[in-house]
Amino acid sequence: MGSYNIHEKYMFRAMHLAKKGQGKVSPNPMVGCVIVKNGEIIGEGYHKDFGGAHAEVVAFKNCIKDPTDGAIYVTLEPCSHHGKTGPCCNVIVENGIRDVYVSMLDPNKEVNGKGIEYLKNLGINVQCDILKDEAKNLNKGYLHWIKTKIPLVIGKLAQDDRGFIAKTGSKVWITGASSKQSSHQLRSEVDAILVGKNTVLIDDPELTVREVIGYNPKRIVLDTNRTLPLSLDMFQDKKAKNIVLCSENRFNQSQTHFCSYLPVKKRITNYLLFIF
């Protein structure tokens, strides 16, 4: 980090804090905040839970010194509207902050430049785009959702050196320990993991995060006719929320203590069955 300037160093710290909200704040973005005065970090915070206090508010509450005339570094544009919480811009102004450094604008139409404009109109120095690419990567799922209203989907499969991904009807371990750890890291970064009925029947998988530190994603299974046996581990272990996607032509939406059943449309082609 020696090649980075002082503003980037503080923003890196804010991003490190933001990642602590992974798995707990969706569909909100992960946001971190650092408050600096006279070259000293006097307050830090991050968005901890969906619906909870924003990173800026937490950072001010954690301040060990008066933040007046200090600088604030935040990984996403401060909000200027009332949502589940009050506007962060108001909190920044009320605490006498002189300089605001932002990594990227929030594409949410409720914000999207309005927070920056609000602060500038009050005479506060605002600088944007500090480690912007890193900020976009941090919240790529949120950014995709805000812009398209479609979840960001990541495909993952394992194949052997001949290009095969499975042996019909059998449970086969193809990849090694490092690949398994990488898969679990990926699980810890998403809201849900989706698999087909046969994968569950053959492997009886946990679909949880075990090789790294993180939260278990929701487990979603494509089971058109709801034929999966309830003795499967995923229905018994209570380690994550289960959702079964089934045919709307046969079932109504329902829920048990171990699973939610969600009827969806289906479309059959010559080769594939699409459920959406």
What does this structure look like?
The protein is an alpha/beta fold. The protein is 27% helix and 19% strand. The chain has helices at residues 6-18, 55-61, 88-94, 114-121, 132-138, 140-148, 177-188, 197-203, 233-236, and strands spanning 32-37, 40-46, 71-74, 99-102, 125-127, 192-196, 218-222, 242-247, 254-255, 260-264, 266-268, 273-275. A 5-stranded mixed sheet has the order 2-1-3-4-5, with helices on both faces. A 5-stranded mixed sheet has the order 6-7-8-10-9. The radius of gyration is 23 Å and the shape is elongated. The mean pLDDT is 87.
Intertermini distance: 45 Å
Determine the structural class based on helices, strands and strand pairing: alpha/beta
The percent of residues in helical segments reads 25-40%
Counting DSSP E segments of at least 2 residues, the number of strands comes to 12
Low-confidence stretches: none
> What topology, given as strand order, has the largest sheet?
2-1-3-4-5
In terms of DSSP E residues, the strand content is 15-25%
Helix count? 9
Series of secondary-structure elements, N-terminal to C-terminal: HEEHEHEHEHHHEHEHEEEEE
Mean pLDDT: 87
> What composes the largest sheet?
5 strands, mixed
Rg for CA atoms: 23 Å
| Subunit arrangement of the protein | single chain
* General shape: elongated
